[in-house]
Write a structure and sequence with these properties.
Four copies of one chain form a homotetramer. By secondary structure, chain A is α/β, with parallel strands linked by helices. The first copy, chain A, has a single domain, classed as Divalent-metal-dependent TIM barrel enzymes (TIM Barrel). The longest helix of chain A has 21 residues.
């Protein structure tokens, strides 16, 4: 066990989790968006907040940007601001859902002019990548239909394939196009990329720089997500995670909040495939918003939840597990997994953090820091950021 | 069959479906609300639009109001406007989800002052009922929590029971309190009235004037809704329907759009229990919005879908059905039901409408009427109605 | 924390979990029943196996029987055998699904003769209760239909109500009728008691001796089970649990295997309502079978899983939780719950067991005991027990 | 419309639906298998029953066989029997779920000897194909695990890929390997081919003779099945359907019984892709059993349901649909689809059948034929066929 513990500490020291800029703005449901004191008014303040999460956790050194919400005149200046705060710019996320033109689709729209507009938007995003040093273009396609017959399912796939080719052609060699799937919402009958199979088919058609993004909240009920993780790793096409959680609907709860055992099982497949290493090409990102809880602590808790699930996965005694599996010892193999899951890894993570000069409990340290009160006092006036800015 | 047809015509002639005022305003998802030309700017225009649906279908003589979205200075004037347009005011819907105070609950809030505010809001709604002649106070409780531990499940039930008692005490003798349940949204871990059992328990505690509202889109996947209809009818507590449909998430698609067979099975239980008669106490209401389709035609189509499902249910040969059921003839009993479902009832409904001086196909007649173009031209300026006005 | 720990130890020392006799027989799916060496050949051997589980865990002093699978000539002798082995007879379970007469229903059958037979079967079960000292008659009603129209939903409810009245009338004063609900299976369109609301309505109609059984595997996907627990406790009608777990289908996996966090949340509601006490009237039973894993270790693991979830629930700092809840501290309240969940309670339970003269780890102790090998050697010949014997 | 009607008649005249031999044997749930009078005792009688369905419907000229349930000494004789009865042998189905060796997997088993046995079983099936003239080897892989950790997800994929390669290598040039996926059951944590993506990946690795089988009952709740149909058609890998239906669990209800609108939407994608033509390579098969309803009438009803859904799909006015889709007319496009769905196609099918010298209503004609009574009288003695023979 000593050895496992040491290996776990080493692996955890290298783990990084990317934060979404939009997690720091206001968010909500179709019924209500609640606002909170201290919410950022611009991309610079969002990055500052993300940097606070990194300062307390030591594990969140990158920030995903969203275009156009995070558009600034000078992206060089934004990247420098990030560097000054100790973080860097991560994936660039395009927005295909807030324009009136996209009512019936963006990259899939029957109107070539709308498709061209959606492609051009990605060219703009790639420019932001070049200006900020980002390497990942993340596409979540919100296209779909609400009624049977509304549009032709197959035509939409063909248009999508063509639009994606045009975007892909714009990438630089070091760039990746990472393509997300989602089971439902904001359309309710079809989604044009509803499952991992569809995302993968498009990635295979595009080429080596295209990878699948798995958002933990984007599956049908009771889908075995760790199976998909294992499958995508097996064929070398798991590009990134969007971590969050969900009981039934919505997908913006704190990762691990709804089913911590599932998160552990997912991280177990990552560790089993040796894909935790930064060079494995899997980008571990959060994609969640905070409707009713404070944002910075919400992100800190999320980072900690991923770390705890990872720590448990690292503590699985793989020799014991393998032995039990090979001998058909169902309960013994399950027990080998559960022994790790049932371990309280908070002391291990506290040890790691203290060795890094970080607070043992980032959540409590932040609460005691006075930072929340400070930004609530300072950030008066202006327009709080939200979905739309 | 002649007899069944005649009875069906007679029953269909008395069927009424209540329209929600908010169906005529803009609506959308948390991602985007699309606006449309011609959308009403105030409650008077909403009622006018509802009256158009009634003029074309002859089956939609009432309009549900929403407080505060439909607040006007003079409700007597609004009721008179409705009467002038040929419709009347139906259920009054309270709003417990758009106030910052309700972030952690309304009727269930731990803070007595917030609960008192929510109760007072219902007193206001009851005043609107008196001013408009409405008899139904409809409560959809959007309260709930997002995270395990966030609040105490049982305390919230006790507070809810107490708040409902206070509201109930304000009702006049001819009034009803109709109480809706919803599986999820806008909260994602618990909803305080998530299922028919919880709604019923509160109604039983309140008294005879409290009834359950069944919203067809508010159940876990694969729930047998017609079973619940039959059960609530059996114990005399089905107060109303909120009709709409849903594939997986959201609950605002046109009723019958996702699963017309389910709608038929629901109406079959209504007919079987002889609960179609207006005096049965079941109020058949639509509760849906139109995100991407035009609103008046959307409502016309919805009314037609309910009529078609009802017509099919009325055509079930109940003697043949009963005989097959009693003899254990599984396929024969199923066939008796399916014979009615597979019947094309559009000619029957055309006959009914023409006998009433209505267009045989209200949807096409409306499209040809020029009304949509007219309101698009006339309703320029002002603020289009939506969720919030 | 010291205090919580001490209270937890005291509460855990009184917790008992009832085992099902059928868990020790062979079980499987409709596709295949695998047999295992050492499986009991008769009710006496099943009770002996259950007693082994109790000897290793100290927490499983009762065995549920199933009629007719556990029919013996002399139930007094069986009860004495149990007593000799250190256990007692728990709930008596009726069987309404294995007789050809029940193809279209048992207590709900359209044929009065079949209903009378099903009622008479329960009279027989009550006789077994008298002969064995059991106080709980457990009814799981497998009745339902496969096709729309197959039978009349409401007629079946009326027949069920009448049949249950007849059974209830046979109970002795100290007896309880505990009534289970199930979402689906073995019928696939309707189940006659599909949800807690239906079970509760029948219990309310029957009287004070009728209580609801909540089987953790019998709900629609994503149903919030702990909410139902809290609601049934609130109205004093939670009679018993059938513990097991389920990912999507079937409901026979080891309790806590699919979602240990859910099991913790359920036990948290139990502890919160002070319903762990034996005198609370909630009978904690396992109802699961072991398709591919060995049976005695499977039951030991199940008991341990319930104990661990209970221990965690007992460690919740309810003052901290309440304070955070009252102040709207969403993350703080969630953290208070998660702090307990994330605690490794195995040392606490080891301490408890050792103080009781039990092995610290019953699962490993059993594996090392040689008992499995012994019964595999001894139980040669005869017919292994399964569903049907 | 005349033209559409004529085209529909022509297309319907060429449509064929393959019947499963096992539909004529007894089947049930894990709780109970009910037996029926007149059930076949051997493969010859099963084929005779299938031929009866064909004689009454004219649309079911092939019978799928199951190995080993349909093993006979002389397959040439069985094929001749089929020919004499007017039908032919369709797909050969392997069985990987009824052998004790397969408890922990067949083609995925960790033990090479078990995998070799499972591969050898397919070689035997391919021999049956040669002996009967069958061209499709259908593999439903029931492998999976019940508990997290029980076996290594990825290792199982690798073993599966290798085993499938060995089977594929045995195919003759005109043969196809058609590979089914299933969401859950008979294992409940992982299934080794749980979704279309996994099946497709293995088919792509195997080669051009490997195709995906879509079983309509094998998806997570609310999965959009017609999307998958469209996607598989788009990439040329939809090899066959297994038709049946399901409300929540099990997957053996009569096709179209649970959601006839879904069946229509599926057939609409088939017609839209011009894949109804026999030469399209899509084999339309039933895969269902009849637990409580009589088998021959159950199969007749199933064939009729597929025909009706197909007829409706053929009546979609595709020009009107396309026009509405292209102009963003959501309700108009939906209406174009629904107009076809709402049409009563029973007269059209009656006309077709009568033009073919068949009864207008095969279900009623069979009921009146006396055949059911005849086989009930004749088939006395022997062992009724079921799962296992």
């Amino acid at each position: 066990m000593t050895d496992l513990r040491g290996q776990a500490l080493a692996a955890l020291a290298t783990q990084t989790i990317e934060l979404p800029s939009w997690a720091f703005g206001n968010a909500g449901t179709r019924f209500k968006v609640f606002s909170s004191p201290g919410v950022p008014r611009d991309p610079f303040e969002k990055i500052s907040d993300a940097a606070v999460v990194h300062r307390f956790t030591g594990a969140a050194p990158r920030v995903s940007l969203h275009v156009p919400w995070d558009l600034v005149d000078d992206f060089g200046k934004l990247a420098q601001h990030a560097a000054d705060e100790g973080v860097s710019i991560g994936a660039i996320n395009s927005n295909l859902f807030q324009d009136d033109d996209y009512k019936f689709g963006s990259l899939t729209n029957a109107d070539p002019a709308v498709r061209a507009k959606a492609v051009a938007h990605h060219v703009q995003c790639i420019d932001v990548m070049r200006a900020t040093g980002s390497t990942d273009l993340k596409i979540w396609l919100p296209d779909g239909t609400n009624y049977p017959g509304q549009d032709d399912i197959r035509d939409r796939q063909e248009r999508l394939a063509e639009s994606l080719q045009q975007v892909y052609a714009e990438l630089d060699p070091g760039h990746r196009l990472i393509l997300e799937y989602k089971f439902y919402e904001p359309y309710f009958y079809t989604m044009d990329i509803p499952d991992w199979g569809t995302s993968l088919l498009h990635c295979l058609a595009l080429g080596e720089q295209a990878m699948v993004v798995l958002d933990t909240g984007h599956h049908a009920p009771n889908t075995n997500i760790e199976f998909i993780v294992a499958q995508l790793l097996r064929i070398g096409r798991l590009g990134a995670f969007d971590f969050n959680s969900r009981f039934y609907g919505d997908d913006d709860l704190i990762v691990g909040a709804a089913d911590p055992f599932q998160l552990f099982r997912i991280m177990n497949e990552i560790v089993r495939a040796d894909a935790l290493r930064p060079e494995s090409g899997v980008n571990f990102m959060l994609d969640q918003c905070h409707n009713i809880e404070p944002k910075i602590p919400g992100q800190i808790r999320s980072v900690m939840n991923v770390q705890e699930a990872t720590a448990k996965a690292l503590l699985v005694d793989r020799d014991a597990l393998r032995t039990a599996q090979r001998s058909g010892d169902v309960l013994g193999a399950n027990a080998a997994l559960m022994d790790a899951y049932n371990t309280d890894v908070r002391p291990l993570l506290a040890e790691l953090r203290e060795s890094q000069g970080l607070p043992a409990d980032p959540y409590r340290a932040y609460a005691a820091s006075g930072h929340a009160e400070q930004i609530a006092t300072e950030r008066i006036g202006g327009q709080q950021a939200g979905w739309g800015a």
